[in-house]
Write a structure and sequence with these properties.
- The complex is a heterodimer.
- By secondary structure, chain A is mostly helical.
- Chain A is about 55% helix and about 5% strand.
- Chain A has a two-stranded antiparallel ribbon with strand order 1-2.
- The radius of gyration of chain A is 20 Å and the shape is globular.
- By secondary structure, chain B is an alpha+beta fold.
- Chain B has a single domain, classed as Glutaredoxin.
- The longest helix of chain B is centred in the N-terminal third of the chain and has 11 residues.
- Classes of the chains: A mainly alpha, B alpha+beta.
- At the A-B interface, helix 9 and strand 3 of A face strand 1, helix 1, strand 2, helix 2 and strand 3 of B.
């Protein structure tokens, strides 16, 4: 569930397979969750535009997270509960409520479908706090009980990402290689190959990849053109 | 300074580059996230790589926070 612009966007080469949840119009609670998400997003954007910061007690995201959690409790085991659970965690993280994220994650059963998303949020909370133990324990516990390939790939990816954040590239590689072994050919495996490529070849001190490309005006440009020059290569999007 | 854009609309990008007076090379082939350079550098947006005069990676950074270290890396290399 996407919200306000993140300060960094990964560009996965393989598009993730689209999920096919029940259409909101056929499930009134799901529609309710969708409406709540729209309102939450609008209020949150306004709060930030007016100078509100993550962590401020008046952040509407906190209120909304609690409301989403209530949907989960009132309609357990439904697609709406799944969406609401993911939303609750996302908005707690957005409001810097990382203790809330970690405490709720402790209690989230291993077979809850929301883990596919929540494991990412738990990792982000751990990263913000610099406190990895609860994330690591939860990831290990999920991997030891779950046979769901999608979930396992999602968990391994966050384990890898966590290791990278902790400057442990060799362990990160192990996690990404587990994805290649368990889910070859998947979109997660494509992402994993990219990470392994980066760990092996894109370190400070290593020669930058050579490239040949064209500018937006059609002129050829190559890495050889910059020998002897200091280069700042910046990847961006105009939107 | 070399930019790599993942925009898919080349016309729109050209317009923006002209309006903003960006006078350094703008690499863009309209392939968006499938741009070869994106995969070569495992880039997201924004992502920065600083290369020294010998073509080695001197610094790298992902995300829009903390970009000052990239400025410092460039300044350090230019001073040599």
């Amino acid at each position: 569930m996407k919200r306000t612009a993140a300060c960094f966007v990964w560009l996965t080469l393989a598009t993730a397979p689209a999920q096919q949840p029940p259409k909101p119009s056929e499930d009134p609670v799901l529609k309710q969750v969708a409406d709540m998400s729209k309102r939450c997003l609008a209020e949150s954007n306004q709060f930030r535009e007016e100078g509100g910061k993550a962590g401020d007690p008046g952040d509407p995201a906190r209120k909304w997270a609690t409301l989403f959690w209530r949907i989960r409790e009132e309609h357990p085991g439904t697609p709406a509960a799944d969406r609401a659970t993911r939303a609750a965690f996302s908005w707690w993280r957005h409001a810097d409520q990382d203790e809330e994220v970690m405490a709720r994650a402790e209690k989230l059963p291993a077979d809850d479908p929301a883990w596919e998303r929540v494991i990412y949020i738990l990792k982000e909370s751990a990263r913000k706090r610099g406190a990895w133990a609860r994330f690591t324990n939860k990831a290990e516990s999920l991997l030891s009980v779950s046979k769901d390939k999608k979930l396992r790939a999602a968990v391994w990816k966050e384990v890898g990402s966590a290791y990278l954040s902790q400057d442990k590239p060799e362990q990160a590689k192990g996690a990404f290689e587990a994805i290649l072994k368990e889910a070859p050919g998947s979109s997660e495996a494509e992402d994993a190959k990219q990470f392994i490529h980066e760990i092996n070849h894109l370190n400070v001190g290593q020669p930058a990849p050579r490239f040949q490309a064209k500018t937006v005006d059609g002129a050829p440009i190559s890495s050889q053109d910059f020998r002897g020059k200091v280069v700042l290569l910046s990847f961006w999007a105009s939107w | 300074m070399v930019s790599v854009s993942i925009d898919e609309d080349l016309e729109a990008l050209r317009g923006m580059v002209a309006r903003q007076g960006l006078n350094w090379p703008q690499i863009c082939d309209g392939k968006g996230a499938k741009t070869e350079l994106v995969s070569l550098f495992n880039a997201g947006t924004p992502t920065y790589y600083v290369l020294d005069r010998e073509g080695r990676i001197a610094a790298k950074h992902k995300g829009s926070k903390g970009v000052e270290r990239i400025d410092r890396a460039v300044a350090g290399l230019l001073a040599r």
